[in-house]
Amino acid sequence: MAGRALAMNTATNMYIYVNSASDVIAKGFELEMDYDAGFAFGRLSFSQQQTDQPTSIASTHFGAGI
To answer: Which key words tag this protein in UniProt (predicted)?
Structure first.
């Protein structure tokens, strides 16, 4: 494609990640259970977390938004 300009998508978002100025407390637990019956295998898992970390616009990128 010599001599032909390519279109550029310039609509990008930039996020800056910084540490919280205050202490952040995070707690939670995870449970996981596996079962193998020889002819079938099953797995069940559960996790729960709780934190007092402030939410930022950058966290919505990971699906953790408000």
So the answer is: Receptor
Contacts of 12 (CB under 8 A, 6+ apart): none
- Rg over CA atoms, the chain: 22
Task: Please indicate, yes or no, if residue 40 is contained in any of the structural domains.
Answer: yes
Task: Identify whether 36 is part of a domain.
Answer: yes
The label of the residue with tokens 């559960």 reads 46
Which residues constitute the domain of residue 30? 24-50
In a domain, 57, yes or no: no
Phi, psi of 10 (to 5 degrees): -100, 5
Q: Which residues contact 45 (CB under 8 A, 6 or more apart)?
A: 30, 31, 32, 33
pLDDT digits (tens, 9 = 90+) for 6-27: 666 656 666 667 777 788 888 9
Residue 44 domain flag: yes
